[in-house]
Amino acid sequence: MSTRRARPLDPRAWIIWAVAANLPLLVGRNPWPLAATLLAVLGVWAAWSTGAAGARWRPLLGLALVLGVVSVLFNLLTAHIGDRVIGVLPESWPLIGGVLTLNALIYGLLSAMAIFSLVAVSATLGATLDWSATMRLLPERMAALAVAGSVAWSYLPRTTAALMEIREAQMARGYRPRGIRDAAPLAIPLLAGGLERAMITAEALEARAFGAPLAPELTPRPWQVALLLGGLVAALTGAFCLALGQLTVAGALLAMAVVSLVAGLFTGSRGEPRLRRTRYRDPVWERPEWIVSGAAIAVLAVQIATLFLDPAAFRYEPYPALTAPAINLPLLAALGLLLVPAAVRP
Amino acid sequence: MSAPGRLTPREEPIVTVSELTYRYPEGDTPALRELTWVVDPGEFVTVTGPSGSGKSTLLRCLNGLTPHFSGGTFDGTVTIAGHDTRHYSPRVLARLTGFVFQDPEAQFVAGRVDDELAFGMEQLGVPVVTMRKRVEEVLDLLGIAALRDREIATLSGGEQQRVAVAAALALQPSILALDEPTSQLDPWGAEEVLAALNRLSEDLGLTVVLAEHRLERVVAHADRLTVLAPDGTVALDGRPRDTLRLAEMGNLPPLFALGRRLDWDPLPLSIKEGRSAQRRDAALGRVPAPAPPDPAPPGGTPVVALQRVRAGWDRNNVLRDVDLDVRPGELVALMGRNGSGKTTLLRLVAGLHRPSSGRVLIGGQDTARLHPADIAQTVGYLPQNPSALFFAETLQAELGFTLKHHRHSELDPEATLATLGLEHAIDRNPRDLSGGERERAALAAVLVGGPRVLLLDEPTRGMDAARKRALIKTLLQLRDDGVAILLATHDVELVAEVANRVTLLGDGRIVADGGPRTVLSGSLTFTTAVNKLYGDGFLTPGDILAGLGMNRSVEPLAGTIEFV
After folding, report:
1. Which of A33, B179, B480, B506 is most exposed by smallest CB count within 10 Å?
2. Alpha-carbon torsion (B74, B80, B82, B83), positive or negative
3. Residue B360 lies in a domain
4. B169: nearest CA in chain A?
5. pLDDT digits (tens, 9 = 90+) for B115-139
């Protein structure tokens, strides 16, 4: 089994890195930054995905590869525009009939690269984030949520194992899963078993003093909930606008999101807790964290500057005519810094 | 509330249960009935009794999970170190009573060992310096310092239970309550946990209350044995030797059962005590006649054949070049330490795992190209956890589902249920059955397909004596009906009762293969308590009694659970 793991990096360093790695994938389809980011992310994944956690997340990459292939085929068969025709399907075929173009193929490939990179970033986070440390980042008054999050996280692998066990037990009874209608023999035992386990976990939490000294006054006020929800909506819309290239709107929305999330999380609710929870493990922030977050912030700075000075460095449209994508060498050099976590494994 | 912390030397009991009658919200009869019971500080008490006698409920009273978590009606009082549990919630009582659950996996709330140990202290706001010190202390107390950075999911069952004990101790409770902590473990894991408990009791003077139905390993350590009756009252309570002398129950340790028949004095609680009694007997010339040889193996064509099979995960071979033939009417016990390949072998036969080389033949047919559902026409596989099967509303529908997938079975649900004594439950939801009925219902759902081969993986894990006896009866019946049975187990006493062949696996190879008397005799680890004393093919108390010309029907694994 896995021996002593390398010390995980502080989750905050990983989160900054993930933001820097995701930005180029969201803002455009220029193949140069896409390829640079993908290579860097795969390098980091290769360095950090050893051991059991890596094995758990590897299937996700396989799924992303399948998704990528599907997206290429879908785009090739349905987008019948562009100047480089590479084949023709009979017009009478619904949806897919018409000319097949190199433009559509290339756009599909670029989208597939972006999807695959996004998934690779998530898988890297999944395999490397110290989940309980991440949950401890939440402020004191969200401690209950944090514990719920950690418990849910430790549940995931057990639920997968339970599903495998049930599937095998049913197959050994002659059952052959064929479609969604055959799901009951798997779903019902999984659900019932999950409920049983949830009861035991709830009992265990009680028996281990969970929630003991928390003052009841710590429930958030309605306006705090509103701020949190508003912040989340603003963040999502902002990301969407960013992807559409509406930079000003996106900037405004994202700034709003940050302000309302911070306000919602950190402003006082009714009263202070009578007894403060303590933390066993202090967050460790040492040289590797400084290097990773520093590099990621540098990448982010270059990216944001480039967005305003030379937006074409991120954008690319193979329609209507296939052209050569713009190259911005400083940006590509900066994206290379995304590889830094691969080198600083503590 | 006063800080409980370390025990102060006072003579009053630390646990007082008086006139307690408790009924679960959905229960027809009380789970505990007019129960009065005390525990003195520093005592090591073992609570036993058949399934459903209220062992778990009584333990849950010690930290307030009963009645605060479970609801129901609660008459009488339970006081823990002077605190009436009706007025304190479990989360407050957590400082007084550390609790360890039966299932090593389901009770954890963190991913890593040190986070798990710190969890309760973080909740109670223990200062960081104290918390760090206590984490170090409990790591050493339980001998798990090497595991501190490990993910809990990667630990063995014995290691997990020691982590659970350490996590409970980190709050420095006065009482440690453990609900059948070893029932899901193999013998070595159970030994690790019990040795740790014994040390805690002797060195720290910790009060330990342990619910357990496999008494042979714990009675030597316990100061007191409390036996609960099926109706939720205290049947017997006292020093283990006195209690066991009076008890009429199925889970007597085998040597103790033998000692009672042979009038040994003192009655042996450990192998060591048994050995001196046996020497005294031998000196008096009371030596059993040689045990009969193993019966000849049944003939016939093998229904399962493994031919030079290699199998494993990634590039590690769990099984190497295994050859094994199983014939109808054979009950083969697969034994070996954890990771020796027992489960992989069963999975190969069920078609759930493919050999990397070699062939697996079922009824002469190579399984390489068969779907597990095709193999299931011949091979039945009983999962360890019967709940993995049930999804239908009634037992009849559950069996009907198996039948629908077995074209050749001529059995019908009613007859199958009748052979397992479940005919009364045909219209009930299988999930509502009691523990023992559920196990038999799962077996019925497999047997109704009329398998010629039956695979069982650790079927007696967590079973009490009565349920085990019911299983033994069923297995012997199936064996006599010509079903070939492969049974992976650590339970040597079960093997001694049912197997007509034992296959010992070591490091993925077959190390020994033959009749149980031949294979188990002289083994240091894979043998019964009786064999450790007498050797020479004697396996059960019945063998010794027969060898001495006495009536062999004692209550080793047999004997209904009744109380005098």
Report:
1. B480
2. negative
3. no
4. A208
5. 899 988 988 888 889 999 999 999 9
